[in-house]
Structure formats: structure tokens, C-alpha cells
Design brief:
Helix content: 25-40%
Number of strands: 17
Number of domains: 3
CATH topology of the largest domain: Rossmann fold
Bound molecules: S-adenosyl-L-homocysteine
Strand order of the largest sheet: 13-12-11-14-15-17-16
CATH class of the largest domain: Alpha Beta
Order of helices and strands: EHEEHEHEEHEEEEHEHEHEHEHEHEE
Structural class: alpha/beta
Radius of gyration: 22 Å
Strand content: 25-35%
């Protein structure tokens, strides 16, 4: 048995390397002290090849329940086959399930609790609705609430899923953007919601963020989230309640604009007009239309007298053949 010793600052990076090389021992827990993290590994030779510092330490085994990988290991096939993907937000589990499976909710709850012992609520997933993009959710098991505190990328995010939009699957995307940001930037985030992007970026970078959001409930939670994370944030967040299409007219240009645009809204022109160096513009696009989408952005840049390079990335499946995409736009300085 062995562990690799890594300085805390490099822990995330090394963890990815261990996973990629398939030598992280998932059955054991990592150990920590003030300066270092000790990841359990399965292959000492490989770790040596990766030039990692190896110690002959015995990391404790995880409890059996944490070893299960997914619901397939825990529920009969005829139930699992009819369940959609499971999301965890704080202590709430969100699951797509047909109406008649509500009868089996105790059995499903037992399985979910084996994977995620912290779960206190199970909610049945509906669709996003209205201009605030709130998801329709029905509590089918546990405490009758949709308010919780979610932990992601080292920040706490308080949400009330009956009143605001929040998507835990964007965790990796938020981390990606935070890593692109440089200290000192002035950043604009229209359509900011309960501030997940703003909080994650401000946690990692010393930046000045202006966030704009219309849903009063999201704005209230946004302020609470700034308070909740006060000690963790390197950057500053200034939250403005209002309509992006009005508020932005009165704002100056920013180094970077990040627009998690709501489905069905076209905000390209106004958000691009506020970007000096970079724009990250999210939209929902059919796979056959990605080139068209890219051309539309290039054309909008031209109209605004900006010389741009545009890269479109698929971020998530939205529905068959339709993706949530992000256009990473870089604006040349000499315009
Ligand atoms: N950035 C957040 C929220 C994205 S959903 C996140 O990733 O979690 C889109 C958000 O835009 C919602 O919170 C919705 O309330 C808000 N919104 C919709 N139309 C708006 C407008 N015209 N002005 C400001 N915010 C708006």
C-alpha cells in the first residue's frame, strides 16, 4: 500500500493525472495535513514513472457504501432502466422518473442514500420554464423543501430550486473559465443567477466582477452567497438587479464578458459590445448549425468593428442533436 505526497496547491492537478493514469485507489480515502495531500495509489511503479513522491502509508478504506459507482449496482434493472440521470444539489437528489415509479420511491431512496448518504430530499425533474428558467420539480421523498447549500469548486452556493435556476453539471465548465481568467481583470457576467460563475472565478482570481440578474429571488440568494463565501474570495463581486438589456447600456466595457444566456434569448449583440478582450457566449445549438452559429458571431464582430477569433465548444447535451455550446471569442486589441 502506498500514497503519493503532493503539496495542497498541486492536489487538483495531480489528482487528474492519477485518474488519467488509472492509478488512484478509489477504495481508499486521501489523507491531509496542513501542507500536503496524500493520495492512495494502486501502482507504485507507474507513480515512480510519473516522478511523484511515494510514501509507504496505509490510507484508510472507504466505507463499503462509498465504493458503489452508480445506481445500476443497487437497483433492479427494470427500475434503473426507467430512471434518468441523477443530479445532486447540496442534500437534494434530482432524478427524472416516470409518474408510476413514485410507488418505488422508498427503494430508490435507499439506493441513492447508499451513494450519497447526505441526501435528505428526492425531487422529480421537470423542465425549465419562464424567463427566470426555474425548473419544475416535485418533491417525492424526504423533507418537503427545495432550498439547500451546494458545495462546488471550493465555494458554497445557496439555492432554492423552486425559485431560481442552478445547474450542478456546469461545475467543470466554471472551473475551465476560472482558469482562463487573469488576476486584475474587470469581468461582466450578465444572466448571473445565484452567482455560481462569479463565486468560482472570484475564489480563484483577484478580479473585479459585475454581475447582472433580473430574478429578485436569485439576486437575494446572490447577496447571501457573497456573504457566505466572504472569507474564501480573492476577487470582488458587485451585483446589479435589473434587466441585462437595460442595465448593460449604462455600463462601460469590460476585459471579459461571460454570458450564460437563457434558452431562447439572443443577447449576442449587447454582450459583445461590452467585451474588450474576451467573450464567452453560451447558447443552445443543433449540431448541424454550429458553423452557422460561429459565422453569426464572426459577422456580429465585424459589424461592431472588432477583429475576432471564435472557437465553439460543446459543453453539454441538451436534447438529441442539440448541445449547450460556448463560443470563446477573442478580440484583437488593435481595432
Ligand atoms: N448564470 C447562472 C444562471 C443562468 S440561467 C447559472 O449558471 O446558474 C439564466 C439566468 O438569467 C436566470 O437566472 C434568469 O433569471 C436570468 N435572466 C433572464 N432574463 C434576464 C434579463 N433580461 N436580465 C437579467 N437576467 C435575466
Amino acid at each position: 500500500m502506498a500514497v503519493v505526497k503532493v503539496p495542497k496547491k498541486k492536489a487538483r492537478e495531480i489528482l487528474e493525472i492519477l485518474k488519467k493514469n488509472k492509478i488512484l485507489d478509489g477504495k481508499r480515502k486521501a489523507l491531509r495535513d496542513n501542507e500536503f495531500v496524500y493520495f492512495p495509489i494502486t501502482d507504485i511503479e507507474k507513480a515512480k514513472q510519473l516522478n511523484l513522491e511515494i510514501l509507504p502509508l496505509d490510507a484508510p478504506r472507504r466505507p463499503e457504501r462509498q465504493i458503489y459507482k452508480n445506481l445500476e449496482d443497487l437497483l433492479p434493472k427494470n427500475i434503473v432502466e426507467r430512471l434518468g440521470r441523477l443530479d445532486i444539489v447540496g442534500d437534494i437528489a434530482i432524478l427524472t422518473m416516470p409518474e408510476d415509479l413514485k410507488e418505488k420511491v422508498r427503494e430508490i431512496a435507499n439506493a441513492i442514500k447508499k451513494l450519497y448518504p447526505e441526501v435528505r430530499v428526492i425531487a422529480r425533474r421537470g423542465f425549465h420554464e419562464g424567463e427566470f428558467r426555474v425548473r419544475r420539480l416535485e418533491v417525492v421523498w424526504g423533507e418537503n423543501r427545495l432550498e439547500t447549500v451546494h458545495k462546488e469548486n471550493g465555494v458554497l452556493i445557496k439555492v432554492d430550486l423552486s425559485k431560481v435556476f442552478f445547474n450542478p453539471r456546469m461545475k467543470g465548465e466554471r472551473y475551465r473559465i476560472a482558469q482562463l481568467v487573469n488576476d486584475g481583470e474587470k469581468i461582466l457576467i450578465p444572466f448571473a443567477g445565484v452567482l455560481p460563475y462569479a463565486l468560482v472565478i472570484a475564489r480563484y482570481k483577484k478580479v473585479d466582477i459585475t454581475a447582472v440578474e433580473l430574478n429578485p429571488e436569485a439576486v437575494k440568494l446572490g447577496y447571501e452567497n457573497i456573504k457566505l463565501n466572504e472569507k474564501r474570495l480573492k476577487g470582488r463581486i458587485n451585483l446589479i438587479k435589473g434587466d441585462v438589456f437595460e442595465v448593460l447600456q449604462k455600463l462601460p466595457e469590460f476585459d471579459r464578458v461571460i454570458s450564460p444566456t437563457p434558452k431562447g434569448v439572443d443577447a449576442l449583440s449587447i454582450v459583445l459590445s461590452k467585451a474588450r478582450k474576451f467573450l464567452h457566449y453560451y447558447d443552445f445549438v443543433h449540431e448541424d448549425e454550429i458553423e452557422v452559429f460561429k459565422k453569426r458571431i464572426v459577422e456580429e464582430c465585424r459589424l461592431q468593428g472588432k477583429e475576432c477569433t471564435v472557437n465553439v465548444k460543446k459543453i453539454a447535451d441538451y436534447k438529441p442533436h442539440v448541445y449547450k455550446v460556448c463560443a470563446d471569442v477573442e478580440i484583437k486589441q488593435n481595432h
